[in-house]
Amino acid sequence: MSKALITSVAPVETLVVPSQLDGRDGWNRADRAHKQISASNDLDAVRAWLANFADKKTTFASYRKEGERLLLWALIDARKPLSSLTHEDLLRYRAFLLDPQPAAQWVSATGSKFARADPRWRPFNGALSAASQRQAMVILNTMFTWLVSAGYLRGNPIALLRSGSRQTKHRVTRYLSAALWEDVKAFVARLPTQTPRQKTVSARSRWLLTLFYLQGLRISEVATGRMGQFFRRLDASGNEQWWLETLGKGDKERLVPVSAELMSELSRYRLANGMPALPQPGERTPLLIPLSGPKQPLTRSAVHDAIKQVFRGAAAWLRSRGPEHSDRAAEIERASAHWLRHTAGSRMADSGVDLRAIRDNLGHVSLNTTSIYLHAEDDERHRQTVGRHRVDWETVQADPKTTEGEQGG
C-alpha cells in the first residue's frame, strides 16, 4: 500500500485504509464470538456507530467530525489502528487538539469550511479551545463506550483519562464586547450600495447580523430555517405578538420572541429581495437567501462563511483606519456565528432580561410539555425580550461616500 494512503487526510466517506492499519488485528479488539455488529475493521465500526444518529443531522455531523479526526490521527500520527490506541495515545491526542500540527495537513488554510469533496477540505478549521477539546473527548468517550458495548473493543482507553477540574465556572469569552459590536455594525452600515449586487450583499449582511444577534440562533437553525416559521398570535391582553418557531439541538422545538425591530429588519431584507414585506404561513423561503440562484437553504458551511466574510471585512475596515485599531480588528477576525449567539445571551442578561427567559430563548433547556398552557409566562418573556434587547441600526450612520469593496458570498 502506498505511503500516500497513510499520510493523506480524507473524509470517512472516501477514506481508504491500508490493510495493516484497518484494525482487523487491533490489540484492543474483543473476542469475535461476542461481536454484535458486522464491522470487521475500524472504519466500518465507526460508521456503524454513526448510523445511530443518521436521523439527527446536527448530532451526526458533530459526532462524525470527532470520530473522523481521531481515526485520521491514529492512522497518520500514531501510525496504528484506532482499535490499537492506548491510554498514552489518547493523552497525546488530547494535546494535539489544542494545536493540530503540521497545520498544512490538518487545518484549513483560510479557516473556512470547504465541502467534504473539495481537495481543500481539512479536519480542522483551527486549533480547538479548551472547552471544545473537552467536548471532543466527551463525544469520543461515547463512541468508545458504544464500541465496547457492541463487542467490537475490549476496553475504552478514554475512560482512564482524568477529567480536568471544572469546579470553577468559566465566563464566556467568545463574544463581542459592546465596542466591537458597534464596530461591526458601523462597517455593515457603510457597505456600498451603488450596484444591484452591492445592494443585495449589504441587505444580507445587515439581516444576517440582526438575525443572529436578536434571536440568538445556532448556525444550524439559521441554515435550515424558513421564513414561514415566523408567526403572530395575540397575548392575554389582545395585543399582537410575533414569534419564531425553530428546531434546535436534539430536534427540540422552541419559540423565540420576535420584536417589532426584527420584523422591520425582516421586511427591509425581503423588500430588498423583491418579496412582500411579511412572510406567509408555511412559506418555504429560507431565513438566509442565497446571493444568486434559486431560493434554496444554504449549508451550515455556507452560513459560516457568510458571517465570517462580514467579520473579515469589518476587521479590514478597522485596520484601514490606523494601527491603533489593530487589536480590535484581530479580535473581530476571530469571531464566528457562535460568538453572536454568546453576544446575544450576554446582552440580554446585561439588559435585565430574566435568566429563565434567556434560557428558553436560547434553547439551553427543553420546554416542559405543559408550557403550552403557560401563556402568562410566555407573555412576560416576550415583553422583556423585545422591550430590552435591541440592535439599534438607526443609531449607526452610513457614509454614502464609502467605496469599500463588496463582500462575497
TrEMBL record:
Tyr recombinase domain mapped to chain residues: 171-387
Core-binding (CB) domain residues: 40-148
Gene Ontology biological process terms in this record: cell division; chromosome segregation; DNA integration; DNA recombination
PROSITE patterns: CB, TYR_RECOMBINASE
Chief location category: cytoplasm
Pfam families in the cross-refs: Phage_integrase
SUPFAM superfamilies reported in the protein's UniProt record: DNA breaking-rejoining enzymes
GO cellular component, one term: cytoplasm
Molecular function via GO: DNA binding
Subcellular location: Cytoplasm
Alphabetic keyword roster: Cell cycle, Cell division, Chromosome partition, Cytoplasm, DNA integration, DNA recombination, DNA-binding
InterPro entries per UniProt: CB, DNA_brk_join_enz, Integrase-like_cat_sf, Integrase_catalytic, Integrase_recombinase_N, Tyrosine_recombinase_XerCD
PANTHER family tied to this protein: PHAGE INTEGRASE-RELATED, TYROSINE RECOMBINASE XERC
Protein name (database record): Tyrosine recombinase XerC
Organism, scientific name: Paraburkholderia humisilvae
Gene that specifies this protein: xerC_14
